[in-house]
Specification:
Helices cover 37% and strands 18% of the residues. It has seven helices and seven strands. Helix 5 packs across helix 7. The chain is globular, with a radius of gyration of 16 Å.
Length: 180
């Protein structure tokens, strides 16, 4: 039986996020389609967790590429999969995923804007696949690195160190981030 993986999708809208490289749907969807294609070619079942605001917009393209399209809250569906894949840090679902015991794979351009300490803590919980840009303005990954990350990502104990060090701390102690 092939492992079932859930790729968490980037929002499909024309908004360009300016706080990181490549945070625009065109770049991310192109990357996600190539991740799906490669993982399917080496025998994985891949489902695509659509961002709630994007349901119905690109479903036919995903189905044509062999991915099951999954809706509903991430928290309700992630338990049905053997591993979770994120093509970017910019999703609230990643925070939840990091507190589960599911294997997590994350593609990341550089350190994704994280401090060295935060990047190291994230690496304890997730298998990170480096991204880079090619001369065609595409985010690219090494296919073998992706397969290795998926194959070696292990279920982990509920390691909340990244969450505690980088989210809860800011929420409680940074002005404007919540209770202070």
């Amino acid at each position: 039986k092939s492992p079932k993986l859930l790729l968490v999708g980037f929002p499909m809208h024309a908004k360009r996020y300016l706080d990181g490289d490549g945070l625009f749907f065109y770049f991310r969807f192109d990357l996600e389609l190539r991740i799906i294609s490669h993982l399917k070619s080496v025998g994985y079942e891949v489902a695509y967790k659509m961002h709630p605001d994007s349901m119905g917009r690109v479903d036919p393209i995903l189905v044509e590429n062999g991915a099951e399209v999954v809706g509903g809250p991430f928290e309700d569906v992630c338990g049905d999969y053997d591993g979770l894949i994120f093509a970017d840090l910019a999703t609230s679902a990643l925070g939840f995923a990091l507190t589960t015991d599911k294997p997590v794979v994350l593609t990341l351009l550089g350190r994704g804007g994280l401090s060295g300490e935060a990047f190291e803590a994230l690496g304890h919980r997730a298998s990170i696949v480096p991204l880079s840009w090619n001369d065609q303005n595409q985010l690219i990954f090494n296919e073998q690195d992706l397969v290795t990350a998926v194959n070696t990502a292990q279920p982990k104990g509920r390691d909340t160190s990244f969450w505690e060090q980088n989210v809860c701390y800011r929420w409680h102690y940074t002005p404007g981030w919540g209770a202070s």
